[in-house]
Amino acid sequence: MKVGLLGTNKQSLDMAFYIKKFSKNDNLCLSGVHTNSTKETTDTAIDLGISAYFSMESLTDNSDVLLIGYDDLVDISAVLKDIKIKNKILCHFSTEYDASVMYCGLTNTQFNIILPYIYDNDIPADLSKTIIVFEGFGRNFEEFKEAIESVFDNCRFCTKTERRLTLIAKRAATIHIRNIVRFARHMFKIAGVYDEKFMKELISIGLDNSCKEPQAVSDNSKTTEQEIKKDLRILENINESYNKEFYKSMELHNLETTLYSNEEKSKLQKILGKRISRT
To answer: Quick one: which of 1, 137, 198, 221 has the fewest CB in 10 Å?
Structure first.
């Protein structure tokens, strides 16, 4: 299968460099690149040792698979429909849209590719250190799956629901953890006991414990009704409205993952207020 780059965002370039390095047969091989910039097209073609195509039609004519590295997927899909592409495999990397955004007719196959553990800004990223998630459908699904599995040892093919769960998990493991660390750092600074070295060690211990299998929570590690009331009063007194809401959301989550009785959970939820919506 000949793989073309239509646009060059980080994810499409990461995939292209990986295919170039690790594809040992003709199951997947790079054909060429097209972008909106003549210079970018030329430079990328030189970097990858592939052909530079200066029209979208010439790229699609010489590719079986398109790695779409653009953000405006709705517009790109409309253009591909206009040039009446057939029997192509269209892959995009957006977390906003699933595979169906690139639907261009029954003869084509659509995929959304997610790199859930990659946050390294370097190009190319080492994709051997992550799991690559594919969600898609179409006529050539099995053929593409076989080609991908011949190159990537660490790939998973999933449903739309599993894709959404992957994105939720990615946010929890990156953005939500970052927000929790910021909250903790801010509280330490207000308390006047902040030390960066201590903070990093504490985070390291916390992450290490978080990666272990969950176990029964002992009584002395639970946040009691009285403790929650004290915490909320302190945050109220120092006028930390945002951090108060963030604290409440964390404690509501803790209720779901601990072994409180239903009666205890009910009491604590009343103190914390109505459930904060989380996705």
So the answer is: 221
